[in-house]
Amino acid sequence: MMPELIPVLSKEDLEKSVAGIAKRISADYRHRKPILVGVLKGAFVFLSDLIRQLTIPVKIDFIRTASYGDETSSSGTVCLTKGLEIDINGEDVLVVEDIVDSGVTLRWILDYLNGLGPASVRICALVDKRERRQIDVHVDYACHVVQEGFLVGYGLDCAEDFRHLPAVYHLKK
Ligand code: 5GP
Ligand code: MG
């Protein structure tokens, strides 16, 4: 059966929310130069739109994590497949994630980053998905709060498909 794509966030919704979050981040970090840490691959579209709306200087780095589980939920076992290249010791770090779901991946990322001696670590996520939250991680900047559903598009994939779509859809199989 063909999977069905149900619109969740339009291009306009995304433009508006990213501009709003960029404004908040620019105000909160004024006179500072945070290091934005994008979590590959899902966050790359969001990160690239976000940084072009900021009015503060930033540095950019990426990490990549893998969590072994089935296609649509994480297993709880996270490993790092690409670490940071910039030294974050004494720096303000803003993690840029696509989706916070169970919170397992983010908790792991926070422990990894905190071990490298940053001055501060905050979280920015395109989507804060609440339904399956297991670990109480605080998302400082969330563009959208969604209760449920497996989302694709705007960087988000299902088995590497759909990342190129300019809007976010619920993938109904
Ligand atoms: P968590 O560890 O919080 O359960 O999930 C972490 C990762 O699973 C997210 O960073 C994201 O990459 C992926 N994920 C969670 N929910 C979704 C979803 O609805 N769509 C897609 N494409 N990935 C998701
Ligand atoms: Mg991710």
3D architecture notes:
The chain has helices at 11-28, 44-51, 104-114, and strands spanning 4-9, 35-40, 59-67, 78-82, 92-100, 120-129, 141-146, 151-152, 168-172. Helix 1 (11-28) crosses helix 2. The strands form 2 sheets. A 6-stranded mixed β-sheet has the order 4-3-2-5-6-7, sandwiched between helices. The protein has a 3-stranded antiparallel β-sheet with strand order 1-9-8. The longest helix is centred in the N-terminal third of the chain and has 18 residues, at 11-28. It has one domain: Rossmann fold (3-Layer(aba) Sandwich). It has 173 residues and is an alpha/beta fold. It is 21% helix and 34% strand. The protein binds guanosine-5'-monophosphate and magnesium ion.
Descriptive key words:
binds magnesium ion, 21% helix, 173 residues, three-stranded antiparallel β-sheet, 3 helices, Rossmann fold, globular, binds guanosine-5'-monophosphate, six-stranded mixed β-sheet, alpha/beta
How is this structure best summarized?
This protein is of the alpha/beta class and 173 residues long.
Sheet with the most strands, sense and barrel status: 6 strands, mixed
Q: Report the helical percentage.
A: 10-25%
General shape: globular
Q: What integer value in Å does the Rg equal?
A: 16 Å
Strand order of the largest sheet: 4-3-2-5-6-7
Task: Examine the secondary-structure arrangement and name the CATH architecture.
Answer: 3-Layer(aba) Sandwich
Order of helices and strands: EHEHEEEHEEEE
Total number of distinct structural domains: 1
Bound molecules: guanosine-5'-monophosphate, magnesium ion
Quick check: average pLDDT?
A: 94
Structural class: alpha/beta
